Amino acid sequence: MKLDFRQPTILFGGSFDPVHEGHLHVAREARQALPQFKQIVFVPAAHSPGRPGALASPELRLEMLRSAVGPLGFKVWDWEISRGGTSFTVDTLEEAHAQGAQELLWLLGADAYARFSTWKNPERIRALCHLLVVDRPGQESYSQNPADRFIGIPPHPASSTAIRASLAAGEARPQWLPEPAAAVLEKLLPGTNPYVKKI
What we know:
The protein contains 8 helices and 6 strands. By secondary structure, it is an alpha/beta fold. It has one domain: HUPs (Rossmann fold, 3-Layer(aba) Sandwich). Helix 2 crosses helix 8 (179-186) and helix 4 (89-98) runs parallel beside helix 6 (122-128). The longest helix has 13 residues, at 21-33.
């Protein structure tokens, strides 16, 4: 899907395996804190560097994400999934600029921000966007660059790990799994839900 990058845009990357209410909470808070950024775009990774592979296929994660965020007025950009391979933020930002991006924020948590210097080509990332850091409980953020922006948001208890564990235990609609995403999983053929343990 192509986006209108001529308008100020916040990009929110991640595995979203699966998307949960905590992700939606962060996006809502960012929209409220920065109303001039009308376009908040979720960017699901094909494969996140330095992490184990997602349990759900890229196509299934994309379907759940679209179903959950669309009704809230957020968008999904499937470029990383269409491209395949390991998803690096710098490559995604280069593509956004190739599509006409003018003002970009990259949304990340304070935990990821603390490791930002280990990312692929962090200097180029800073040239392509400003970082928008979400403060999380128990993680003190120290600004690494005067251009970085910070928003403090109320904590949310949702966790992809906990939701995956609940699904593996046979719970159809775990707490904090958005109803539209749960509905996508319920439509799968028996035995094809990637989160359910196979006997």
